[in-house]
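User: Hi! I have a protein structure encoded as tokens and I'd like to know what sequence might fold into it. I'm fairly new to this, so please keep things simple.
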């Protein structure tokens, strides 16, 4: 239940390009969420990706720390999002925007807020 396996990750170049081209976004500084409907075959309703730009964080260890924090927060809180998605599939991407390395709690508050916003948006779309 609280795992984050390889098939839940967004890896396809084609899907990533489509996400940047057609995706909608929501921002809660220092995190930006980009999401779109997806057509893929998977037992999971959502595929996720986490990005920390090299332009803002030159050192790989800082980028890795931030991505690990975001993945862990997503892993522990994705079950609510999975329950909201019933008929469709989504691709989502979390982009870290700040130049500073924020602590776990600050990132957690913002990511949970964004996940709740996405959940509400999905519920509206699923009803229609």
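Assistant: Happy to help. Inverse folding works backwards from shape to sequence: for each of the 128 positions I chose a residue that suits the local structure. Here it is:
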């Amino acid at each position: 239940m609280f795992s984050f396996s390889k098939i839940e990750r967004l890896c396809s170049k084609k899907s990533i390009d489509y996400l940047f081209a057609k995706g909608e976004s929501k921002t809660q500084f220092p995190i930006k969420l980009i999401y779109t409907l997806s057509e893929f075959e998977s037992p999971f309703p959502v595929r996720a990706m986490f990005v920390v730009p090299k332009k803002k964080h030159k050192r790989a260890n800082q980028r890795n720390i931030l991505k690990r924090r975001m993945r862990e927060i997503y892993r522990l809180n994705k079950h609510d999002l999975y329950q909201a998605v019933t008929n469709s599939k989504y691709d989502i991407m979390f982009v870290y925007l700040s130049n500073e390395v924020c602590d776990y709690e600050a990132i957690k508050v913002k990511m949970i807020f964004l996940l709740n916003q996405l959940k509400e948006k999905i519920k509206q779309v699923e009803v229609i």
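A useful reference point when you look it over: The first helix runs from residue 13 to 22. Feel free to ask if any position seems puzzling.
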